[in-house]
């Protein structure tokens, strides 16, 4: 939103991941559960936006907006105490003493493709390997 340099407003953003940016002096006064309230130049006319991930950008002509101090993503910092999940190690190959599975028939291969269990390229490779 392009505004005059003397504009004053109170921005209320209700969003999962949206942010507020301004080229005018701004202070975030309230945050929580997806709600962010920011006063631009001390506050004034209400500007409200409800969105999943939309941003509010307040700019004056020729001055780019920057993040408002104190305005962080709703989820940042809330889960910082939870360690990352380690990668799952690869499943080892079965021992060589295991029985070899019976080859699949063409009908079984086509059924697996239809159910989304196998791609066409995988099916072609499997049929070439079985012949």
- Number of distinct beta strands: 7
Indicate the structural class. Answer: alpha/beta
Question: Could you give the distance between the termini?
Answer: 66 Å
How would you spell out the order of helices and strands?
Answer: EEEEEEEHH
Q: What does this entry show, briefly?
A:
With 131 residues, the protein is of the alpha/beta class. It has helices spanning 106-114, 120-130, and strands spanning 9-15, 20-22, 26-32, 35-40, 45-51, 56-58, 66-67.
How would you portray this structure in words?
The protein is an alpha/beta fold and 131 residues long. Among the domains are: 9-67, no CATH class; 103-131, no CATH class. Helix content is 15%, strand content 27%. The protein is built from two helices and seven strands. The chain has helices at residues 106-114, 120-130, and strands at 9-15, 20-22, 26-32, 35-40, 45-51, 56-58, 66-67. The strands form two sheets. Strands 3-4-1-5 form a four-stranded mixed beta sheet, with no helix packed on it. A three-stranded mixed beta sheet has the order 6-2-7, with no helix packed on it. β3 and β4 (35-40) form a beta hairpin.
Q: Which tags fit this structure?
A:
3-stranded mixed beta sheet, 131 residues, 2 helices, 4-stranded mixed beta sheet, alpha/beta, 7 strands
Summarize the topology.
Blueprint lengths: L8 E7 L4 E3 L3 E7 L2 E6 L4 E7 L4 E3 L7 E2 L38 H9 L5 H11 L1
Parallel strand pairs: 1-5, 2-6
Antiparallel strand pairs: 1-4, 2-7, 3-4
């Amino acid at each position: 939103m392009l505004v005059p340099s003397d504009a004053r407003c109170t921005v209320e953003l209700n969003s999962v991941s949206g942010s507020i940016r301004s080229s005018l002096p701004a202070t975030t006064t309230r945050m929580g559960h997806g709600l962010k309230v920011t006063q631009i130049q001390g506050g004034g006319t209400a500007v409200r936006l409800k969105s999943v991930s939309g941003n509010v950008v307040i700019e004056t002509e020729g001055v780019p907006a920057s993040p408002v101090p104190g305005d962080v993503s709703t989820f940042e910092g809330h889960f910082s105490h939870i360690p990352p999940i380690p990668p799952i190690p690869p499943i080892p190959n079965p021992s060589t003493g295991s029985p070899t599975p019976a080859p699949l028939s063409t009908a079984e291969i086509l059924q697996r493709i239809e159910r989304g269990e196998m791609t066409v390229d995988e099916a072609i490779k499997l049929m070439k390997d079985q012949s």
